[in-house]
Amino acid sequence: MALTTHVSQLDKTQTPYKIDPDQTLRASQALLKHVKAEVQKLQESGQKKNLLAAGDSDDEDEADDAQPIWLNLATKQYLTDKHRLKPSKIPVPHSLNTNENATICLITTDPQRAVKNAVADPAFPSALSTRITRIIGLSKLLARYKSFEQRRQLVSEHDIFLADDRIISRLPKLLGKVFYKGTAKRPIPINLAPKESNKEKSKKIPKEERQAAVASPAVVAKEIEKALACVPVTLSPGYNIAVRVGLDSFTPEQLRENATAAAGAIIEKHVVSGWKNVKSIHIKSPTSVALPVWLAEDLWSEKPKAALVETAGVDGASPDAETEPGNKRKRKVNATRGPQIGERKKARLAEERAKEKEDAAARKARLSAQKASAFQAD
């Protein structure tokens, strides 16, 4: 039975700009059921489970037994006109970093000693400090990891990479496609700078001292824990955002809560015009079809109500006046400029607007019929 047949028809009474929790739960149940069935089928055939793992990175050493669940959000208009080098963090109720043995690499500003002292401080949680296996400054990162193979080795040695947000925009050029071609090992920004009081802000502190300043051990630990509990979102030119919101080990309720929270935060933070600019929201695994959790009633943005600009006729005749003997100018009867067109222009514009409304109504009717047949229950 096809996976899409497990998802019943959308509730027609739901609010247009709100995710239906029942629909999201049904999609989560169907998706997780499909993932488990696929894993069991591969295990019975003697294949390894990690063949299903997300292949968004060329790193051969990257092994993750947990299969990710993605949230795909499509918009009607462009999200941004350029790549955002600094990813944003979206908090979710259930963290994806559930492995307590996952190692962490911290990339910091220079000098790195201040961060090392903060992590080694007794006030820093010991359970978290044991997971931080390397703290490396920006200058040492540049000096020690110049070649492609050295960066591949760095990627394979750690599970999670965190970076000071003061240098996060410089890392793509330094780390290269080993880190940034996929999304699994991209550094997540954390704020390690201390909070300055009004008196400190008024003082003229040298830039080097501000860059080297690090917050207290308790604040550093809190920032790291906050980053581990979030999902990173990187924007690029286009109409889609894809973000990991769950694992195949999640329950349907956990996946629903993460998907709902992530979608709402992404729309509020990154989508211009909010829900009105959202076309669809789906969830999927790397090997499944995308299951819908929300679809827009109108897939096209409303056209601005602006006056149509009149142009010259198709026969190439100029709309300007025709010069006659005696240097007297006489406008053509069918000219598209000037006060002589009067009511004729208004009538033509009214006809064009009425035709546009009829075309829009026809498109909506066809779309509604397509959606009703696509989401029809067994």
Automatic annotation (TrEMBL):
Residues 190-209, 312-378 are annotated as: Disordered. It holds the Pfam family Ribosomal_L1. The keyword Zinc-finger does not apply. Keywords: Proteasome. The keyword Nucleus does not apply. InterPro entries: Ribosomal_uL1-like, Ribosomal_uL1/biogenesis, Ribosomal_uL1_3-a/b-sand. One of its GO terms (cellular component) is proteasome complex. Residues 196-209, 342-362 have a biased composition (Basic and acidic residues). This is Proteasome-interacting protein cic1.
